[in-house]
Q: What sequence folds into this?
């Protein structure tokens, strides 16, 4: 690809215009850096007050001004993990279907429908979950799990509908389109020769996918899953509406709980002083975790799809 | 990997020369993949169908033209919230479109490869920042110092979410403009910046418009960043420095309220927002189809 170098820019108009575009790009980077800096500054009172104990403490008591992040972090990790368990097999399967099995017209329509799910605002998914999913989770799902697997600590307790399980299912729904679209792009970037070689050896379609396509795209697929994870951990509204907002750590998936984003959404408006600072520290923790997950994911996906653009 | 559990079992089949078993296993696994896609599609259709049907049954003219009824009274509508959302989306776009487009132009036309990949990376990472964190950030830099919730702070938060979307789509669609067009313009003696504005951008305008529409669809439904910036205001628009109502905020408040009437209004609002998002998605698809053909 031919790209003229910025050194070739001549004349005042070119100089001004190119610098203007550069400044706008710097604004974008500045926003990213500033989010980190501002969050650290504003969380400083809580960081000074509680130190590292903030991460390990399970209390959240505005009356005594004692705050700890562990239950929120636990809830975030648990609900995102549940979401991945549900979403990953479905999404990877769907991506394989879209790239390897379906004819082009069907693949186009199916991609469009699945991606439409990603466009629905999370508050509307939350509304739907509140009135449709929660009753369904309460009666067939939790009842059945309680009856058959009730011996396990994960499936004990009151079957309320609200809780980690419902949050996990809602998150799964929300990240399926993301993981599917990303995995589809990754699988499309796998060179055709890779498939043809395997088929020429007499492998079936599935053997080709399993031995030649998926291994080739492994890092990209991991990246796609991580992007989904990053989204799940930061998702706020739909989770806040279904998780029940209790500050506790328990192995039971039926139990109500909270996540970092839903804790912030619920309390930020009325908080002040050290409580506000603690919520800002929660936001900082969330920002740093999702930042790391996204950086790893982007690098993995980029490496994979760069192969494709290099080939074109 | 999703099917690691099958590994040993599969290897057994693979290396046995039992063609019939391999063929059946092939069908079984392909069927599972199709099932994954089918499940996702059925879920989307069921959910969308439910939202649209439920929403349209509570949707009426009053909803569009009336303001919110006081607690205890039935009826009323979301006129103020609809106007509020339009204002917020307008504000966000007003900030994000120029900034995002200029960043896209920089990436596609002026940046050297190293700087470009840095900025591109930052844009992708910014797009992945949870929207609630963006809301907290806008609160910290605007609402807290000014001691007031404001339409402006909400617009800024939405703009931060929209910038990377516009930037990346602008860049991608400008890259699709053939270099021969740029060279032809330069050969005529036009300066670089004029050729960008009058040759490259017109050539990429459909793609750029697509990006802006995607951004609008995204920020129109954002709720988390509005809770502590826009805050909500059922009395109507009161200036950019004052709290402002928005459809997604109202959906949230009404959905978790105990009043049947409010919940029905939430459904009607959800219908309106979903319709907007769906229409934009379809238009985007239509536009990008037209572009590629």
A:
């Amino acid at each position: 690809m031919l790209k003229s170098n910025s050194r070739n820019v001549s004349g005042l108009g070119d100089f001004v215009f190119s610098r203007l575009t550069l400044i706008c790009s710097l604004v974008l980077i500045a926003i990213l850096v500033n989010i980190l800096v501002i969050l650290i500054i504003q969380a400083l009172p809580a960081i000074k007050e509680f130190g590292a104990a903030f991460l390990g403490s399970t209390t959240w008591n505005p009356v005594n001004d004692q705050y700890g992040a562990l239950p929120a972090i636990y809830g975030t990790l648990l609900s995102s993990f549940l979401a991945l368990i549900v979403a990953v097999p479905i999404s990877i399967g769907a991506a394989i279907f879209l790239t390897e099995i379906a004819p082009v017209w069907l693949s186009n329509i199916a991609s469009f429908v699945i991606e439409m799910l990603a466009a629905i605002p999370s508050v509307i998914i939350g509304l739907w979950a509140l009135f449709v999913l929660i009753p369904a989770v309460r009666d067939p799902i939790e009842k059945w799990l309680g009856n058959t697997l009730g011996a396990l600590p994960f499936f004990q307790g009151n079957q309320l509908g609200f809780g980690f399980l419902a949050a996990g299912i809602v998150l799964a729904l929300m990240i399926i389109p993301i993981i599917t679209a990303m995995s589809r792009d990754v699988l499309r970037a796998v060179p055709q020769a890779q498939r043809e070689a395997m088929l020429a050896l007499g492998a079936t379609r599935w053997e080709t996918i399993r031995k030649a396509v998926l291994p080739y795209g492994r890092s990209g697929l991991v990246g796609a899953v991580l992007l989904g994870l990053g989204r799940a951990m930061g998702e706020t509204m739909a989770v806040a509406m279904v998780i029940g907002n209790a500050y506790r750590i328990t192995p039971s998936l039926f139990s109500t709980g909270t996540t970092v984003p839903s804790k912030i959404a619920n309390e930020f408006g009325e908080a002040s002083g050290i409580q506000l600072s603690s919520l800002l520290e929660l936001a900082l923790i969330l920002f740093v975790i999702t930042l790391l997950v996204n950086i790893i994911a982007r690098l993995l996906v980029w490496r994979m799809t760069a192969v494709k653009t290099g080939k074109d | 990997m999703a099917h690691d559990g099958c590994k040993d079992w599969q290897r057994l089949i693979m290396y046995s020369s039992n063609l019939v078993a391999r063929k059946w296993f092939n069908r079984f696994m392909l069927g599972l993949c199709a099932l994954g896609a089918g499940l996702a599609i059925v879920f989307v259709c069921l959910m969308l169908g439910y939202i649209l049907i439920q929403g349209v049954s509570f949707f009426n003219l009053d909803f569009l033209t009336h303001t919110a009824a006081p607690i205890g009274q039935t009826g009323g509508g979301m006129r103020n919230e609809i106007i509020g959302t339009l204002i917020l989306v307008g504000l966000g776009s007003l900030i994000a479109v120029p900034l995002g487009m200029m960043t896209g132009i920089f990436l596609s036309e002026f940046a050297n490869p190293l700087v470009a990949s840095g900025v591109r990376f930052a844009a992708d990472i910014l797009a992945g920042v949870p929207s609630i964190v963006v809301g907290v950030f806008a609160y910290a830099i605007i609402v807290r110092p000014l001691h007031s919730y404001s339409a402006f702070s909400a617009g800024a938060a939405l703009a931060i979410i929209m910038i990377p979307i516009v930037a990346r789509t602008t860049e991608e669609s400008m890259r699709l403009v053939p270099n021969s067009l740029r060279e032809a313009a330069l050969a005529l003696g036009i300066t670089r910046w004029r050729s960008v504005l009058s040759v490259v951008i017109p050539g990429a305008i459909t793609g750029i418009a697509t990006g802006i529409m995607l951004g609008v669809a995204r920020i129109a439904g954002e709720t988390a960043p509005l809770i502590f910036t826009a805050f909500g205001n059922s009395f109507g628009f009161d200036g950019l420095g004052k709290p402002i109502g928005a459809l997604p905020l109202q959906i949230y408040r009404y959905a978790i309220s105990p009043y049947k009437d409010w919940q029905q209004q939430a459904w009607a609002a959800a219908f309106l927002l979903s319709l907007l998002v769906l229409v934009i998605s379809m238009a985007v698809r239509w536009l990008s189809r037209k572009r590629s053909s």
